[in-house]
C-alpha cells in the first residue's frame, strides 16, 4: 500500500507540480475553448488569456505564501 | 521554423535536466564509489530507454487532434510550472538554483550515509542516489522528447537533440570534473518554460479545434506573447518586492 501511495504521489507531483490551481485552470480553459469552437465561436484567443490569468493567480499565491 | 524551434526547445530542456543529474552523479561518484554510481546511472538509462521505446510508437498511433489536446494540455501545465519558478527566481522571491551548493549538499549526505552491499552492487547508497537522480531528471526529458517528437512527427530528431544535449553536458562535466555552476541554468529554465508554454497553448488550442490566425506562423506570435507576459511579470514582481523591502538604515547607505 505504501508503494502505491508513493507511486501516486510521484505522478501527482510530476504532472500537477507545486500549484494544482494551474492544472485545474488549464483543463477548464481547454474545455472552454472546445466548447466555444463547438458553438461556432472563434476561440483561439481564449488560451493565451487564460494562461495570463492562471500565471498571475499562481504567482500571487506563491508570493503571498512567502509573505 | 517550428522544426528548429522544436530542436532548440528539446536541447535546452534536456541540457538543464542533464546539468542537475550530473551534479548528483558527480557528488556521489567522487565522494563514494564510481562503480556503483555508474551502475545506478546505467540502470536508470535502461528504464528510460524502455519507457521511450514503449511509449514512442504508441503515441504515434493516437489521432493527431487527440494527441495535440492531451500533449498540449500537459505541456501547458509543465510549462507554466517551469515559468512560475523561473519568474519567482528572477524576481528574487525564490532562491536561484545553485549547482555548487546542491553539489555541496549531496557530498555532505554521501559522506554521512552508511555503506551497504546488495545484490551485485557493492555500495547501495551510491547506486540508488545515482539511479533516482538520473531517472527523475530523465523522465521529464523523456516526456518532452516523446511529446514534442510525436506531435511534430520528428521523434528521431527530438531524440537526437536530447542525446546531443546530454553528451555536451557530460563532456563538459568530465572535462572540468566539477558541477556546472557557471551554466546560466535559471535563464535556460526561463527559456524552456516560455517554449513549453508556447507549444502548450498552440497545440492545446489546435487540439480543441481552434483555428490559429496565420496557421503555424501564429506560433511566433504566441511565443512573443508568452515572453512579454513572463518578462512583465518579473518586472512587476521586482517592483513589488523593492517597494515591500524595509528602507536601508543610514549605516547600510554608507
Rg of chain B to the nearest angstrom? 21 Å
Task: Detail the poorly predicted runs of chain A.
Answer: none
Give the fraction of residues assigned to helices of chain A.
Answer: over 70%
Radius of gyration of chain A: 16 Å
> For the largest interface in this structure, which chains are involved and how many residues does each contribute?
A-B, 33 and 39 residues
Q: What is the CA-CA span between the terminal residues of chain A?
A: 37 Å
Number of strands of chain B: 0
**How many extended strands of chain A?**
0
Quaternary structure: heterodimer
Shape of chain A: flat
**How many structural domains can be distinguished in the coordinates of chain B?**
1
- The number of helical elements of chain B comes to 9
Q: Look at the helices and sheets of chain A and give the structural class.
A: mainly alpha
Largest sheet of chain B: none
Structural topology:
The complex is a heterodimer of chains A (67) and B (254).
Chain A lengths: L1 H14 L4 H19 L7 H20 L2
Helix pairs in contact in A: 2-3
Chain B lengths: L1 H30 L2 H28 L2 H27 L8 H14 L11 H29 L2 H22 L8 H23 L10 H27 L5 H4 L1
Compact overview of the structure:
The complex is a heterodimer of chains A (67) and B (254). With 67 residues, chain A is mainly α.
Amino acid at each position: 500500500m505504501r508503494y502505491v501511495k508513493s507511486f501516486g504521489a510521484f505522478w501527482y507531483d510530476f504532472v500537477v507540480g507545486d500549484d494544482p490551481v494551474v492544472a485545474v485552470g488549464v483543463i477548464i480553459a481547454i474545455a472552454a475553448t472546445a466548447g466555444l469552437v463547438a458553438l461556432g465561436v472563434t476561440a483561439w484567443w481564449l488560451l493565451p488569456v487564460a494562461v495570463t490569468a492562471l500565471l498571475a493567480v499562481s504567482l500571487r499565491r506563491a508570493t503571498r505564501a512567502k509573505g | 521554423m517550428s522544426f528548429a524551434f522544436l530542436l532548440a526547445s528539446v536541447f535546452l530542456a534536456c541540457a538543464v535536466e542533464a546539468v542537475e543529474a550530473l551534479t548528483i552523479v558527480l557528488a556521489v561518484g567522487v565522494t563514494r564509489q564510481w562503480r556503483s554510481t555508474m551502475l545506478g546511472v546505467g540502470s536508470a538509462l535502461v528504464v528510460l530507454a524502455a519507457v521511450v521505446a514503449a511509449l514512442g510508437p504508441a503515441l504515434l498511433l493516437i489521432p493527431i487532434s487527440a494527441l495535440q489536446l492531451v500533449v498540449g494540455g500537459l505541456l501547458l501545465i509543465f510549462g507554466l510550472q517551469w515559468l512560475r519558478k523561473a519568474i519567482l527566481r528572477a524576481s528574487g522571491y525564490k532562491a536561484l538554483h545553485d549547482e555548487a551548493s546542491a553539489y555541496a549538499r549531496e557530498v555532505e549526505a554521501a559522506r554521512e550515509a552508511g555503506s551497504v552491499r546488495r545484490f551485485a552492487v557493492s555500495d547501495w547508497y551510491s547506486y540508488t542516489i545515482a539511479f533516482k537522480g538520473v531517472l527523475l531528471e530523465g523522465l521529464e526529458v523523456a516526456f518532452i522528447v516523446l511529446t514534442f517528437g510525436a506531435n511534430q512527427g520528428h521523434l528521431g530528431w527530438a531524440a537526437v537533440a536530447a542525446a546531443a544535449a546530454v553528451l555536451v553536458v557530460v563532456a563538459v562535466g568530465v572535462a572540468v570534473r566539477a558541477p556546472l555552476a557557471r551554466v546560466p541554468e535559471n535563464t535556460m529554465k526561463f527559456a524552456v518554460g516560455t517554449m513549453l508554454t508556447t507549444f502548450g497553448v498552440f497545440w492545446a488550442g489546435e487540439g480543441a479545434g481552434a483555428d490559429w490566425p496565420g496557421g503555424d506562423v501564429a506560433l511566433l506570435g504566441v511565443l512573443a506573447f508568452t515572453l512579454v507576459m513572463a518578462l512583465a511579470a518579473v518586472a512587476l514582481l521586482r517592483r513589488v518586492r523593492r517597494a515591500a523591502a524595509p528602507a536601508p538604515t543610514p549605516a547600510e547607505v554608507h
